[in-house]
Amino acid sequence: MTLHSIAERWRIHISRIIAFIFIIFILFTSSKWESISFVSSVFFLVGCTLVGIASMGRLWCSLYIAGYKNSFLVTLGPYSVSRNPLYFFSMIGGVGVGFTTETVLIPAAILILFIIYYPFVIRDEERRLFNLHDEAFEWYRDKTPIFIPKLSLLNEPDTYTVNPKIFRKNIFGALWFVWLVGILEVIEELHEMNIIPTYFNIY
Known about the structure:
This protein is an all-alpha fold and 203 residues long. The protein contains eight helices and two strands, in the order H-H-E-H-H-H-H-H-H-E.
């Protein structure tokens, strides 16, 4: 088994660190768009919609890789339309959480960080998959988009065997965007109650 690269091994840790820094920043920040209720409501609705899509998408991906990720080359379901659907939905979820802050700066910053870091993760992961699966991965790589899904390629079996224990564990990871939105709503309520002071106002 090929060892995971530094980028792969640290992916989850870096994501959690960024989320923690993001929450700390939001603790003392408010949106300048709050004075325009229609705009802030649209931002929040867009954010919740993206988070919903991302959560369902990550659950879909988790269903297919539960128990197979390190043993087989998964090419069905979401992995038939994109080689990295889990990261695609993660990007959507991150941007969605950013929009629930009712700002433009936060989702833009999250998107930029994703664009900077994740190409390294994808490159190293695909190098490992090629070493593991050789010609099978080469065939898969040639016909399947690297990131943006191509829905016309969707290939789903009538039945699929899943490891329920692993899938159950993956559910919590798939829904962490929902937890973040809940935390942000609590922070906003604490701001309105003047329990937490606001030091920054951002667009």
